[in-house]
Amino acid sequence: MLRQGNKTNYVYVFINIVILLSLILNIPEYVVHVIILTLWYAYLSTAWAIISGYTGQVSLGHSLFVAAGSYAVALLYHHYGITPILGIPVAILIACLFIVIIGVPSFKLGVRGPYFTFSTLAAAQVFFYLLIAYSHITGGELGLSLKYTGNPLYLHFADKKIYLFIISLLWNLEMLLIRKMIFRGRLGYYLVAIREDEDAAAAVGINVFKYKMIALLLSGILTALGGAFYTIYFNYVTPPSVASLQLSFRIATTGLVGGARSWLGPTIGSIVITPIMEYIRIRFGSKFVALPLAIYGFLLLIIANTAPLGLARLLFKGRDEIK
Amino acid sequence: MDVITFIQLLINGVLLGGLYMLFSTGLNLIYGVMRLVNYAHGEFLMMSMFILYWTYYLWHIDPYGFLPVISLIMFILGYVLYWTLLRRIVRLPYPAQIMTFVGTIFILQNLALWLWGADYRSPHIPYVYKPLTIGSIYIPLGRALTLLLGILIYTSLHLFLHKTTLGVFIRAVSQDRGAATMIGINVDKVTAITVGISLALAGATAALILPIYYVYPYVGSDFTIIGFIIITLGGLGNMLGALLASLLIGILISFAGYLYSVQIAYALALMVYIAVLMLRPQGLLGGKKH
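The joint structure predicted for all components is written out below.
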């Protein structure tokens, strides 16, 4: 449980002060973009950790929910001119549909470990292939380039800082949700019990199916909202950018590098990884396309061997985890 | 669809199934002895395919002829990899294992991307396209050769696992690691050899695929996914089940690829996987539930 004066709370406040300063101060637009991306990955990985870290059902298919969110918003706007404000509820509904399709059969049958990891991966790949195959609707591999109107009703803003404000709001709400619902309630204990020993959890009367479903629902819906943000911010979606294995891997490993059991871990993972990756991409990416991800691969090998439970465990010694 | 096209697609499907079978056996062997899913298995296939492509392109070494050499190279790689990396990975918690595999995938894919670019490459060996005609059914020579060699490799592997001492050791370790240690089997050594064989199979599959297919840095992921579908559908450790599952998936992809598109074919195969997992979680032919 999180007590007053816990070291992690200071880190959380510090991150918010940095966000606030970057909103107020006059900083280059590119730096704003990097901060937005860092928060976006932090937000997605934190959502991913609800099912994969706390509950221990590691998913490598979270790009499915990102794609559900971003394509729902993009398709409604592109084909019918519907504002993303109304697209977001639809995105959540579609994400719920996917969650039921994956969650109910997997959790009813007790699909665990690599099998669960693989069902999520398979489901995400199905969606990826379908997005490419139905190119007359989705634009295929080239994706959809959306019209920019500059109208705030369509969530189009000229100032990048407004997007920074939106994503930091999303991230803070997510943190609030996790702290209130999972860390300060019974839910967290149930999820950790399921992670540590599913059979024992069931034996003491925890409805394993129900709580796994709740975890997947929270995780998937939050991720879909992150996907919707992607569309609003970039005005451009392609299957490789929102539905690919690469993105699923990136979300999962960002969470794992930071520490998937900690409430602040995935954010720390993103703060460590995203700016470095962006820097390498801008500095060397045009000459060596392969370099950023290759370096990332080596980084993962090193961290897996030195901090198998993530950086947060080294920093906070488990005080930021559910006990 | 006329009868000729039907038979043609069926043959292609069986061939594809055979290749999937060979590849997924490697995945199955590692899972058997280590209880570890090698998510990077496809990337080793991809690296072998690139090596074979360049040995053909630069020195005109026939991929079929180079099969024993590439298998040996991959065997040694697998053996070394076990002692240096995999042996540590098994002891790590599952999330750290995932980090390691994703790291390996990123390194190998991007190494290939950096060295050879993102183009689709095919060696275009002239004799591979020579037609073998039976009645009005047409089979390219390369495909026939691939099927024949695949059956040969698979049969010898089966004999090796069932008739030799080492093969029996491997099966013993897959069944019960603890009991195998107790009766005096050097489990570490057997596991290292199994990992070697597993990667050697990926190398052999590469030699059989390359002449009739093409290679690009991301070719591995599709194979890993299909390989995992097959070992799950077949029931782990169940050879007959795996054979049935590979043929089913191969034929499905062959037909759906012809009727719709490759993307739809892959999507359908994955949906069949999810459907079977819902109806028969223990795999097509039953067997142990994990």
